[in-house]
Amino acid sequence: MLHRVTELHCIMPIANAPSVMTNGILSHEQAAKLAHRSVAMAEIQDRRDKVHVPGGLRLHQYANLYFHARNPMMFKRKDQAGSLCVLRVSREVLELDRVVLADQNASSDYVRFLSPAQIRFIDFDLVFADDWRHPDDKIAYYRHKASMCAEVLVPNAIPPGLIVGAYVVNQQAEQALLAAGFDRAVQINAHLFFK
Q1: Cα–Cα distance measured from residue 115 to residue 108, given in angstroms and rounded to the nearest whole number
Q2: Looking at residues 15-29, what average pLDDT do you find?
């Protein structure tokens, strides 16, 4: 299963690039201490604020990554694509201490929290699907939508050294990201941004 996971993703405003290159990808709690822009939805953050990972930390104490950024979260923010980037994070992040996997959105009612050794329990056919709609089956729709947002949860912060590159929607976004001081490989991938 791990062979399908070549990298992890973090949806991020381009404006945060200077901070990320210095401080890494921070947990919600750590990021709150710095000036930054957020793509998070308030109602989802309120829900996440109530979640405690069994045997671990509160959800807002983890920096979170997606297995695949072309997901319902990105779809909600597709109109902002020109101001966003998707940071590409080395899968070595799975080897950090106390990392937890969520087999779907970590604030979902039916989420299973797993160790990296249990990655086989994540349904990557769902995670990497292009579409989560199931017009004739509402339960399949909700399950698939949540599964596409499967997460890797890293306590406190992901070091900048594990960021290997970024995707952007177009050339203008690429120029903006480079101008913000991002010094890793940047690739244009409009499909990832639903364009």
Answers
A1: 18
A2: 95
